[in-house]
Design a protein that fits this description.
Layout: H1 2-16, E1 20-26, H2 30-36, E2 44-45, E3 48-50, H3 61-65, E4 71-78, H4 89-99, E5 111-115, H5 118-130, E6 144-147, E7 150-153, H6 161-185, H7 190-213, E8 218-221
Parallel strand pairs: 5-6
Antiparallel strand pairs: 1-4, 1-5, 2-4, 3-4, 3-7, 7-8
């Protein structure tokens, strides 16, 4: 799975051209990674970790949850030549601000712009200085700007999480609901009831299997 993701990224870059990346701490990375993919000019988003005091220490989801200093991030890969007529760094930051769901006071879920260069840090700081507030009270000034040259691609089961699991959860809830109704009305034949149970168990095993078999993190440049 991991080698496939990196291969796809390489093919896209070869076909489309050079790209810039923005690495952003936006709270839990599952939803923002999906939302930002809808921005015109963004071709790929990947979940990962950045911002630890010791960036060479390999993180994983458990260590990040345990407080190792890493922040859950969404690296927004703008897979185009950096033509600001289509999408600029500031456009990506605007979209990220709208999509962010940070937890203030939490390092893991902190709102942070991780700059990969001095120029990017200056642009991020200027973006923060513009100010602005969302309807829910989140302000631009609450975004920190930090520099990093290390980004860790998160475990494969975090990538495209809702795209994969939304239909799976829907199927699981439908199966559970059907079996609950059957427990009250007794309308399913035994074979159908057994099939529902087997499918629900398979979905659960898929969840566990992905976490065991696709649990590597990979170090990338910022």
């Amino acid at each position: 799975m991991r080698s496939s993701l990196l291969l796809v990224a390489g093919v896209v870059e070869a076909l489309v051209g050079p790209q810039r990346t923005a690495t952003l701490g936006l709270g839990c990375f599952w939803e923002p990674s999906e939302t930002l993919l809808k921005l015109d000019g963004v071709v790929d988003t990947r979940c990962g970790y950045a911002g630890a005091a010791f960036p060479d220490a390999k993180p994983d989801y458990n260590s990040v949850c345990g407080g190792d200093g890493n922040v859950e991030c969404v690296p927004v890969c703008v897979r185009v030549t950096y033509d600001e007529a289509r999408v600029s760094y500031e456009d990506v930051l605007d979209a990220a601000f709208a999509a962010a769901k940070p937890v203030l006071g939490s390092r893991q879920y902190a709102p942070i712009v991780f700059a990969a260069s001095d120029e990017e840090a200056e642009r991020a700081a200027a973006w923060v200085a513009i100010g602005g507030k969302r309807d829910d009270g989140l302000e631009r000034r609450q975004f920190a700007v930090e520099t990093t040259d290390t980004f860790w691609l998160a475990e494969g089961y975090h990538q495209e999480y809702w795209q994969k699991w939304r239909p799976r959860y829907a199927a699981l809830f439908a199966l559970v609901g059907l079996q609950y109704a059957d427990s009250k009305l007794d309308f399913l034949p035994p074979a159908a009831d057994a099939a529902c149970t087997a499918l629900a168990v398979c979905i659960g095993l898929l969840f566990l299997g992905e976490r065991v078999l696709d649990s590597e993190t990979t170090k990338l440049g910022a």
